[in-house]
Write a sequence for this structure.
């Protein structure tokens, strides 16, 4: 077992300037993500929520600050391995493969996941929880609705057993029933794991934030603060 | 020996531009001014390069030949960027470096190993050979650059999601890179397919007109085809890889903001 005060991810004074150099997109954002926690981040459009998630996944160059993983800085060469442990799920899912099953298999061709194998049974069980049949795997990518594409992207990340899931409005295009099922499924994914895990959940919806995360943050004009 | 042309014979050929001009007038294409300008430029530019070449052939100095070759390479490098839809800072340098490295390497093989010209800078060989390699490499570089920009812009979300799932920058960029290099190489492969059947290449035709033995003319043409195929492939690959390094950081980040659409 791991200790509850294990800090998985630390962000220190992350800074990113607007290209015009006058405004901040991220202004001195610091965050500690402990094991077995769920945090939510709310805020209006353009407040910097997505940029923060991208910064935490080291997907953009920053103007200042540091990301530490389990107490250590992440070196350049270790970044793909870091992103295997912290998976950021973008808001607009991109499915490049012709069909759902191929899309789910795609990550296993990447060097960081090569030792793992696609587990069809596990996917089918998750699909069942989300109210989808096995035939969903055969569905062509072009026929997926926005919500279905979000399901594919979520399962594609989940099957890789990341330590941290960083979710950018993951249920924005889902119907209420599927949204509820996805929230419960992610909760179980976190609670039932013997390994330390955590979820960062960005949402527009304050009610959802209250449901999914006891620790809540609010983002405003590039600054992060605890939500009351 | 070939028939020497006099200026009055050029005048007859040039008067054929009246055919194009008449078509433009009859159909109200409003192309007369451009036709006139194009005709004048054709005559002036070619006469000028004729004078320059005449002077260079007579001077027969390596540094003059190299200077002209550099100028040709520079113009080709810039021309290749001229046709791209999306650009980034440093694209001109990348294009020139790829053009220079690939075409001069292939030219060296041609002059030193294949044709074995002595001295190597003999302008009668070096300049037309480089010209042909550059012309085709330009095409490859320009198509490759343009396609890479379009692919990366269109597949931005896909590239980003691969990176987010732990792909290295190379893994994330590979499909667009392959597509760009393929696009750059296809025209030369196509022309190798039909050469001699559909098209009689200009150089071969020129040699035949000049009275060369057809077998010799064909052998030269075969050499040229392989030179330009190699030059095009090398140029395309190197420009695509150089752009990749500008658009992806060593931290495995994609910088789509650096690609600016030409407005």
């Amino acid at each position: 077992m791991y200790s509850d005060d294990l800090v998985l991810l630390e962000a220190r004074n992350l800074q990113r300037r607007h290209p015009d150099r006058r405004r901040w997109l991220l202004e001195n954002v610091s965050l500690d993500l402990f094991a077995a926690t769920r945090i939510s981040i709310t805020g209006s459009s353009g407040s910097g929520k997505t940029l923060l998630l991208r910064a935490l996944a080291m997907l953009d160059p920053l103007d200042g600050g540091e990301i530490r993983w389990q107490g250590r800085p992440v070196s350049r060469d270790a970044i793909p391995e870091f992103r295997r442990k912290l998976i950021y799920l973008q808001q607009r899912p991109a499915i490049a493969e012709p069909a759902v099953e191929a899309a789910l298999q795609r990550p296993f061709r990447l060097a960081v996941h090569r030792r793992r194998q696609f587990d069809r049974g596990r996917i089918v069980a998750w699909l069942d929880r989300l109210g989808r049949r096995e035939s969903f795997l055969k569905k062509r990518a072009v026929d997926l609705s926005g919500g279905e594409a979000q399901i594919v992207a979520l399962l594609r990340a989940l099957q890789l057993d990341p330590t941290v899931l960083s979710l950018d409005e993951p249920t924005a295009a889902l119907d209420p029933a599927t949204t509820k099922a996805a929230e419960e499924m992610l909760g179980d994914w976190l609670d039932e794991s013997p390994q330390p895990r955590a979820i960062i959940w960005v949402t527009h919806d304050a009610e959802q934030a209250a449901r999914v995360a006891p620790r809540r943050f609010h983002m405003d004009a590039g600054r992060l603060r605890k939500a009351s | 020996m070939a028939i020497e042309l006099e200026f009055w014979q050029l005048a007859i050929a040039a008067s054929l531009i009246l055919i194009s001009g008449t078509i433009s007038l009859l159909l109200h294409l409003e192309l007369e001014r451009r036709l006139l300008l194009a005709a004048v430029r054709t005559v002036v530019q070619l006469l000028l390069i004729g004078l320059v070449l005449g002077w260079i052939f007579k001077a027969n100095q390596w540094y003059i030949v190299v200077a002209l070759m550099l100028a040709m390479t520079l113009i080709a490098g810039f021309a290749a960027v001229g046709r791209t839809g999306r650009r980034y800072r440093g694209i001109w340098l990348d294009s020139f470096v790829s053009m220079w490295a690939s075409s001069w390497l292939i030219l060296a093989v041609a002059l030193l190993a294949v044709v074995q010209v002595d001295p190597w800078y003999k302008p009668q060989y070096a300049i037309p050979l480089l010209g042909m390699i550059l012309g085709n490499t330009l095409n490859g570089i320009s198509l490759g650059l343009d396609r890479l920009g379009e692919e990366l812009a269109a597949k931005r979300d896909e590239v980003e999601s691969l990176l987010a799932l732990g792909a290295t920058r190379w893994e994330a960029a590979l499909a667009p890179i392959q597509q760009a290099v393929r696009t750059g190489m296809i025209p030369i492969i196509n022309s190798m397919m039909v050469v001699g059947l559909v098209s009689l290449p200009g150089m071969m035709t020129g040699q035949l007109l000049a009275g060369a033995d057809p077998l010799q003319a064909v052998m030269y043409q075969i050499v040229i085809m392989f030179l330009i195929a190699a030059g095009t492939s090398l140029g395309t690959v190197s420009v695509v890889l150089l752009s990749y390094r500008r658009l992806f950081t060593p931290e495995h980040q994609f910088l789509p903001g650096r690609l600016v659409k030409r407005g």
Summary: The longest helix of chain B spans residues 214-247. The two ends of chain B are 53 Å apart (CA to CA). The interface with chain A takes residues 155, 157-158, 160-168, 171, 175, 249-255, 257 of chain B (CB under 8 Å).
